[in-house]
Amino acid sequence: MNVLFLTLSDIVSINESGIYSDLLREFVINNHQVYVISPAERRKKETTRLIDNGNIKILKVKTGNIQKAGFIEKGIATLLLEAKIKQSIKRFFSDIVFDLVLYSTPPITWLSSVEFIKKRDKAKSYLLLKDIFPQNAVDLNILSKSGITSLAYRFFRRKEEKLYKISDYIGCMSQANVDFIRKNNPWLAADIVEVCPNSIAPQTLNINEALIKETREKYRIPLDKTIFIYGGNLGKPQGIDFLIECLKANEENDKVFFVVAGSGTEFSKLASYVYTKRPTNILLFSQLPKQEYERLVCACDVGLIFLDKRFSIPNFPSRLLSYMHASMPVLEATDVNTDIGKVIETGKFGFWCESSNVQEFNKLVKKLCDKNLRRRMGANARRYLEENYTSKHSYDIIIKHFEKEDKGYLNV
Q: Domain boundaries in the chain?
């Protein structure tokens, strides 16, 4: 069947690894024709263009800056996105009849494009829910349900409800996400909301002592300490203030070393601490190229995940997968509403604490200095990934709905 995927992710090829490219490859492997619409943000100074790779066509649409942008700039670009995407579909895909439209949040403003495809082509729709907005903005005091910013909240909340209403199915990252959506949108039919987790296509990694030594020497990372790495977005959702508290509490800990590699709106706050205090056991990078970052991860010992303690929505960061892929234990400091801590403790591949308790964080850091414990947990992480979070798992969850329908275009 013809599958249209709408995403804010910067996709130029599905041969690169990632939660979306790996899932789309599963569709191609199963003989579906895949079309992708992905932004070409203004900062890249690119024009709208179509990348044609046979059974996968990627339309890069020129947009404003959306990722890692300030709230106002991001908000304006997101609002303008609807019209741009719809126009691009009409211009480049006017002769294509889509059978399934997949789309991920953020943003919630795919509404008019999805409505257009459903009406024009009688297509089915599947929402990959990766972000619960605007409630996450309320949690972080960016929006409120009263006062002047309540106007923006109500506007986006209506958009959110409409997006859910036009979605034939909604795939959530975890059971806590399913429960949250059902509780806060009781008018939704229960059987359309399900778990469809973040997932990847695991590869065999050649991680050996020589490669680890070479990588650590390249970045001047100690060979005789336990290396904790945090990689990814450094924005308000990550609760950077608590991350800094944890780093400060370990400045004199000569058994550990912290590597932070990422970018985002709060990067400058972290950089200010590092460059002012000059701690000797912390290395800070701005965002690294993907392959370079993945190699760096494989040379570290423990993966870190942070989420702001104020969240009422159950986030489930996809960076967890890169740690599991590298057979690493995970230390997570999050709010109490996400179930990511429950998952890692059930799978026995890491520890969790609340992102307001530095003392508990330090206790878990100390535990993870045990090499034998890390080895066992790392093996558990890789096994849990392969048993629960592969792109084939996600593909099967999505496609089962369409296998039930007796339609000739399905080629599964």
A: 2-201+390-403, 209-388
Fold of 2-201+390-403: Rossmann fold (3.40.50)
For domain 209-388, give the CATH number: 3.40.50.2000
SS3 content of the chain, % helix, strand, coil (to 5): 45, 20, 35
Q: Distance between CA atoms of 15 and 154, rounded to whole angstroms?
A: 40
Task: Encode the chain (412 residues) as per-residue pLDDT tens digits.
Answer: 999 999 888 888 888 889 999 999 999 999 999 999 988 766 667 778 888 888 899 998 876 556 655 666 666 666 677 778 888 888 899 899 999 999 998 777 788 889 999 999 999 999 999 999 989 999 998 899 988 889 988 988 999 999 999 999 999 999 999 999 999 999 999 899 999 999 999 998 888 889 999 999 999 999 999 999 998 888 889 999 999 999 999 999 999 999 999 888 899 999 999 999 999 999 998 878 888 888 999 999 999 999 999 999 999 999 999 999 999 999 999 999 999 999 999 999 999 999 999 999 999 999 999 999 999 999 999 999 999 999 999 999 999 998 765 444 444 3
Pairwise CA distance, residues 163 & 170, whole Å? 10
Q: How far is it, in rounded angstroms, from Cα 314 to Cα 359?
A: 24
